[in-house]
Specification:
Elements: H1 6-9, E1 11-14, E2 17-20, H2 21-54, H3 59-72, H4 76-83, H5 89-101, H6 103-109, H7 112-129, H8 132-140, H9 143-175, H10 178-195, H11 219-232, H12 234-264, H13 269-296, H14 299-319, H15 323-351, H16 356-381, H17 387-405
Antiparallel strand pairs: 1-2
Helix pairs in contact: 2-9, 2-10, 2-13, 3-7, 3-12, 3-16, 4-16, 5-7, 5-10, 6-7, 6-10, 9-13, 9-15, 12-14, 12-15, 12-16, 12-17, 13-14, 13-15, 14-15, 14-17
Length: 425
C-alpha cells in the first residue's frame, strides 16, 4: 500500500507553496474547469435576468428568477443525508451536467416562461451538488493550502470574466441572446466534465465520536442530528444566524438591482456589461486578498469583510442613483460574493471538520428559505414602496447580520473524550 502511494506522496514546489504532485494535478484540472466555466458564469449569473426582462419578463418573473437559486437549495439537507459517506463526485457531475445543458433550451425559445422554468431546473440541480462540492474539495486539497488554491482558481476565472462581461454585453446587444445562452451551456457542461477528473487524494476528516453514518439513519433522525450540530457548535450557530440576516438583506435587493438598472436608468446591454466588468475586477482582487486572509489570519475576518460589503452595496443606489453608483455598488457586490464563495467554505471547514456536508446542507437550507422569500417579497413591495426604500430596508437587515457576527464565539461542545477544535479567531 505504501509503495502504491509513493508517486502521489512526491513533493513539488508550485505557486510559492510546497505540495504533493497529486495536489498540483488537481489544481491544474480545477484551474482548467474554472476557465471553461467563465462564459457560463457571465451569461447565466450576470445577464440572464436582464435578458429575461428584455424578452418580456414581469416584476414577478424577475422575483422568481432571483428566488430560483434559493428554492433549489431547500432540499440540500436531504441530498447531504443521501450522500452520507459515499464519494461526493457523482453528486457533483450528473446534476451540474443536466442543469447546465438545459440552458440551451432557454436560448432556443427565448420566452419569459422558459427563462423562469430553466432557471428552476438549473438551480434544482445546483441544490443537489451544493453539499457535495465542498465535501469533495476537502478530499482534493490539503487544509493548509486550500484557501489559497481555491482563491487562485477563481482568480484565473476572474481574469477571463472581466473581458467576457464586456464582450457578452456587446455581443448580445448586436446579435440577440440566443447564441450567448447556447454557447454558455456547452462551455459550462465541458467545465463540469473536466473538473470531475480530480482525484480524492486527501483523507476524509474524522467525524466526532457519536456521529453515526448518515446512510444508517432514518430521515427524521438524520434531520434531528443535523440540527443538533448547530446546538452543540456556537461558532456554527452564529455563522448561520449572521449569514441568514445579511443574506436575506442582500437577496431582498437582488431583483431590485436589475429592475433599477433596466427600467429606472434604462441601461443598455453594453452599459450593463461595463458594470459587470467592475464587478469582476473587484471579485478578482477580493479572491487574491481573501484567499490570503483566510490562510494567514481567519475565515471569520474574510466573512466579516464580505458581509460589510453586502450591507453597503444597496446604500450606493440610494446615495447616487446613477450609473456611477451602480458601478461602485457592483464592486462591493464582487467583494461580497468572493467572501461568500471561499469564505463560507473555509469557515465551515474550520468549525465542522468531518461534518462539512451536514453543515453545508443546513447552510443551503437556510439560504433556500431566505432566498425564496426575499426576492418575491421585494418585488411585491415595489407596488407600495419606492425602490430606494427597499434598498434601505435591505441595508438595515444586512447590518443585523454584521452585528451578530461580531458576537464572541467559543469552541464547539464535543462529546467526552473527543479532541477539541481550535477556536475560530
Amino acid at each position: 500500500m505504501r509503495k502504491a502511494l509513493s508517486g502521489s506522496e512526491a513533493v513539488t514546489f508550485r505557486l510559492g507553496m510546497q505540495m504533493r504532485h497529486e495536489t498540483w494535478r488537481n489544481f491544474q484540472i480545477d484551474f482548467g474547469g474554472s476557465v471553461l466555466f467563465a462564459l457560463f458564469n457571465v451569461v447565466v449569473n450576470q445577464f440572464y435576468a436582464p435578458m429575461a426582462i428584455r424578452h418580456g419578463a414581469t416584476n414577478l418573473d424577475v422575483g422568481l428568477l432571483s428566488a430560483a437559486p434559493a428554492i433549489g437549495m431547500l432540499l440540500s439537507p436531504l441530498w447531504a443525508g443521501l450522500m452520507g459517506q459515499r464519494s461526493p463526485k457523482p453528486f457533483v457531475l450528473w446534476p451540474l451536467t443536466i442543469g447546465r445543458m438545459s440552458v440551451m433550451i432557454a436560448g432556443v425559445f427565448l420566452s419569459p416562461f422558459v427563462f423562469v422554468f430553466i432557471s428552476f431546473v438549473v438551480n434544482f440541480m445546483n441544490g443537489i451538488q451544493a453539499p457535495a462540492y465542498p465535501s469533495l474539495l476537502t478530499r482534493v486539497y490539503p487544509p493548509h493550502l486550500r484557501g489559497r488554491l481555491m482563491g487562485y482558481v477563481r482568480v484565473a476565472q476572474g481574469f477571463l470574466l472581466i473581458p467576457l462581461a464586456y464582450i457578452v454585453g456587446i455581443w448580445s446587444q448586436a446579435t440577440g441572446d440566443r447564441w450567448p445562452l447556447i454557447l454558455a451551456a456547452l462551455f459550462g457542461t465541458a467545465s463540469v466534465i473536466l473538473f470531475c477528473r480530480v482525484r480524492e487524494v486527501e483523507p476524509r476528516p474524522e467525524i466526532a465520536q457519536g456521529a453515526p453514518d448518515a446512510s444508517r439513519r432514518s430521515l427524521l433522525t438524520s434531520a434531528r442530528r443535523q440540527w443538533s450540530l448547530v446546538r452543540e457548535n456556537r461558532a456554527l450557530a452564529l455563522f448561520l444566524a449572521a449569514t441568514t440576516a445579511t443574506g436575506f438583506g442582500n437577496l431582498l435587493a437582488g431583483p431590485i438591482y436589475q429592475i433599477y438598472q433596466v427600467h429606472t436608468l434604462n441601461l443598455s446591454n453594453d452599459q450593463i456589461g461595463m458594470t459587470r466588468v467592475a464587478y469582476y475586477v473587484a471579485l478578482l482582487v477580493a479572491y487574491f486578498a481573501l484567499g490570503w486572509l483566510i490562510d494567514k489570519w481567519s475565515p471569520r475576518v474574510a466573512m466579516f469583510v464580505g458581509m460589510l460589503a453586502y450591507t453597503l452595496a444597496p446604500l450606493l443606489y440610494v446615495l447616487f442613483g446613477s450609473y456611477f453608483g451602480v458601478i461602485v455598488s457592483c464592486m462591493f457586490l464582487g467583494v461580497g460574493d468572493a467572501a461568500w464563495d471561499i469564505g463560507c467554505m473555509a469557515y465551515i471547514f474550520k468549525v465542522t471538520p468531518g461534518r462539512e456536508a451536514t453543515a453545508f446542507g443546513l447552510h443551503y437550507l437556510l439560504f433556500g428559505i431566505r432566498g425564496t422569500i426575499a426576492p418575491i417579497l421585494s418585488t411585491a413591495l415595489t407596488h407600495s414602496m419606492s425602490l430606494s426604500e427597499v434598498f434601505l430596508a435591505s441595508a438595515a437587515i444586512s447590518a443585523i447580520g454584521v452585528g451578530l457576527f461580531c458576537l464572541p464565539q467559543r469552541p464547539p461542545t464535543l462529546p467526552s473524550g473527543a479532541s477539541s477544535i481550535s477556536q475560530v479567531s
